[in-house]
Structure formats: structure tokens, C-alpha cells
Amino acid sequence: MKLTVIGCGYLGATHAACMAELGHDVLGVDVDEAKVERLTAGEVPFFEPGLQDILRRNIASGRLSFTTDHRAAAAHASVHFLGVGTPQEPRGHAADLGHVNAAIDALVPVLRGDHLIIGKSTVPVGTATGLAQRIAVLAADGVAVELAWSPEFLREGFAVEDTLTPDRIVVGTDPAGTTSSAVPVIRDIYREILETGVPLIETDWATAELVKVSANAFLATKISFINAISELCEIVGADVSTLADAIGHDARIGRRFLNAGLGFGGGCLPKDIRAFTARADELGAHRTLGFLREVDAINMRRRTAMVDLVSDAVGGDVLGRNIAVLGAAFKPESDDVRDSPALSVAGQLALRGASVTVFDPKALENSRRTYPMLAYASSGADACDRADAVVVATEWAEFVHMSPDELDEVVRAKVIVDGRRCLDPQMWLDAGWQYHAIGGPVTGRRRERHTANAHVVGHAAQTLRG
Ligand code: NAD
Q1: Among 50, 274, 311, 356, which one is most buried in terms of CB atoms within 10 A?
Q2: pLDDT tens for residues 420-432?
Q3: Are 385 and 407 in contact (CB under 8 A)?
Q4: Domain total for the chain?
Q5: Is 148 a member of any domain?
Q6: CB of 45 sitting under 6 A from ligand 1
Q7: Using an 8 Å Cβ cutoff, are 349 and 361 in contact?
Q8: 304 and 230 within one domain
Q9: Which pLDDT belongs to residue 49?
Q10: What is the DSSP track for 260-320?
Q11: Active site residues
Q12: Which of 4, 15, 30 best tests ligand 1's pocket when mutated (most atoms within 8 Å of CB)?
């Protein structure tokens, strides 16, 4: 089928390449000329494992190309995926729908014939209803444009896998519509995937919009739940990691997303729970999602708690101390630093007078752009040069598996602060290091060292779906 994907960021570029991989003829559209140039040259403008191969293969086969021209999109296909950004508003918690509206405004007036627009961006409930009215005003006489909403659940770092083997596909259509072409078209697009047994959930616009934000709200709540428990564990000297293992054995609870630590960040969860709460307020349901404000507050508290922990670890004040921060991306296997807890901690330490040097395997370029006041190193060991404390802020495998003797000769003081509770404390203690973990003591872990590390990497592998 001929398809377009409007908005070629983390979601859209992956979706475009994966749709071409399924055999479709895809045109990606983005307003960012530099991004379109790089994509056209077969270069992924961000780090996403496996995407480069798929992108290049499909460009070479002629099934995938990119443009900045919405008219070209209108001429290329009659099915258009919409994956532009929905960031937090600059002066509020609601989602900024400016990009979604702009994409519709650029595309719809130039459409001719019958078209289907399939929204994939994460939007507040009610958006599709509003957009359908906008489309009706913008569409030329005799042009029929149907709107469906099919939210995206991919996780950065696993985006290709999640797009080609999703847990489920959700499609919402106009509840007042008498005839819809959306579901049969979506069945055609995803035929290969649906034949493997992936469920297709057909519903209305509002339910589809709510599925996405509810899923993210649930995940955020689970993470903040364990972090709240970890605050209590710190007071009484209990081990939240063991507690999480123990409660996680209950299948109704499950162990995933119960890792206490520095909390969540990125381009999705924080802004999605805020936009969800803002939308509930607009709908007059002020108390309904009030708990998400607390989920957010618990999460943000982890960042200051981490800064305090680092201060304590170096004797009470970071002023004039050299601090190495290992990790800048909001999670491993990504170069995304949007609302990254790691960079927030690095920035706060710098504001308290520390000389902070950051290293991340993939996110250095984005970090430099976002936090130019910090120093950046080209390796973990380089960042740790004469450090008074080493802070693990993102659980990249190379930090999880790092051994103390790699750093013994480099640092000024053997102090490690584990912001992700991902290290083996006994190994560091045995090597003569002071070990500190956010969320309180870590006990009884040595026995489980190998499984624990495998487990940590396993957890990194299942980190946040976007
Ligand atoms: P992004 O910022 O990486 O990409 C958005 C892209 O849209 C940018 O390249 C931008 O230039 C482009 N754009 C903006 N206005 C445009 C227009 N008028 N026409 C064409 N292109 C335009 O954002 P993202 O992370 O890809 O997220 C996109 C949406 O998908 C958001 O709603 C997000 O919440 C949702 N989402 C993201 C993920 C994820 O893991 N990143 C997962 C699921 C859902």
C-alpha cells in the first residue's frame, strides 16, 4: 500500500521505516529540513538500535523516501499516519497541540479524493473530535477525509521490535460514523503482524486516546509507588530491592517497573501524566486524577534526593568537588535526554557548585545541546578523572558491569553513588569503595549478584514504553 508518515521523529521515522519493511511504499514528511536530509541519506538522526539497517535497506529498495512537502504527501497516498510531537505547553501542564494542528492545516487543504488520516501521536481525550471538525472545515469540496486514532506504544531502545511485533494494535474511529474504511485499511496495513496473533482492538476515538494515556499513567504510578516505599525503607533501614522482589512474585503485582531509583523521565511519561491531569481538570474531573500530581511529585523528589545523597557522600557539600556523572540519557539504549533525571541531577549538582563531568555512550551530543554548562568526557574513565564521587545515573550495561579496578587509579576518592540500584554493592565495598544507593540500604544482594545484574539488564530492556 502507499502510505505517508507525517512527523519523522523517534516515533515517525521508526514507523515509516517499519511500514516499508512490511512491504508498503512509504513517504515520510517532516518540517525539519536537516532531519529529512539525514533520513534521505539513510542516516537515523537519533540512536535507535536496528533502525539504521531497516532505513537503508528500504531506501535502497525504493520503498521509502522523505520530503518536507505536504503536497507531495497528498499526492503520494490516500492513507496518512500522523506522528508529530505533542510536547507539554510552555506555560502549563496541558499538551501543546500546535504541531498536530499545523500538520492537519498543511495536509488537508491539498488533499483530493478520499483519504484516511490515522493519528498516532499521544493526545488528550477529545482531540480527534476537535480535529474532525477542523478537517471538515479545511477539506476542499468533494474531498472525503476520515480520521482514526491508533496510539503508539513503542519503547525507545526497542522501537523497531515494538513496531513490528507490538503487544496490541488499538484503533479508534468516529463513534457517530456510519461507514468506516479505517478498520479494513488498518487490517490490510498490518496483515502480516495480525496474522501472528497480535490483537486488534477496535473502539471509538475517546477510548483509543484514553488507552494510551492510561497505560502511561499506570506505568508512572507503579514506578512512583516503589519510590515512595523506598522513602520509607530509607527511614527504617529496609531494603526496597528485596521488598520489590518479594511483592513482585505476586502475579497480580508483577516485578516489572518496580525498580526503585532516580525515577522516570523522557519525552513521554512526565508530559503525558501532566497532560492527562490537565485534561481531567478541563473536563471538570478535578479530583479524579489528583493522584497523578503526587506520582509526579514523588518522581521529581527523587532527583533532589539524589543530589542530597551525593552531597552527603562527599561529606555534606558538593561545592568545589569533582563529580562524575555516568549516564545522561533518560534510560539506557536511547540518546533521548528530554526531561532526563540523569541530566537534571548533573545540572543541580553544578548549580550547587560542583565541577560535574558527564559521560554517556550515546547521548553526549544531545546533552551538550541541552546542558551546555556541564563538562563532557569521551569515556566513563575520563569522566571519573580525579572525581570525588562517581554517580551512576542511567543503567547502561557498561556501567552496570563496570568493575572498581577500572576506576581505582583514576578517581580522587573511592565513592560511588548508585542512582539506579543497579550495581553489586558488595563488589564495590570489597574493593575499598564507599557505596551509596538511592532508596536506602541494599542488603542480601551478593548472593544474587549474577542474577541481579542479569535482572537489571533485563529491566533496562523492558524500560518504559513511550
Ligand atoms: P519527536 O519530537 O522526536 O518528533 C516529532 C517530529 O514531528 C519532529 O521531527 C518534528 O520536526 C515533526 N513535525 C512537527 N510539526 C510538523 C508538521 N507540521 N509536519 C510534519 N512534521 C512535523 O517526537 P516523538 O518522540 O517522535 O513523539 C511523537 C509523538 O508520539 C508524541 O505525541 C509522543 O508522545 C508520541 N509517542 C512517542 C513515543 C516515543 O517513545 N518517542 C512513543 C509513543 C508515543
Answers
A1: 356
A2: 999 999 999 999 9
A3: no
A4: 2
A5: yes
A6: no
A7: no
A8: yes
A9: 96
A10: -SS---SSSHHHHHHHHHHHHHHTT-TTTTHHHHHHHHHHHHHHHHHHHHHHHHTTS--TT
A11: 268
A12: 30
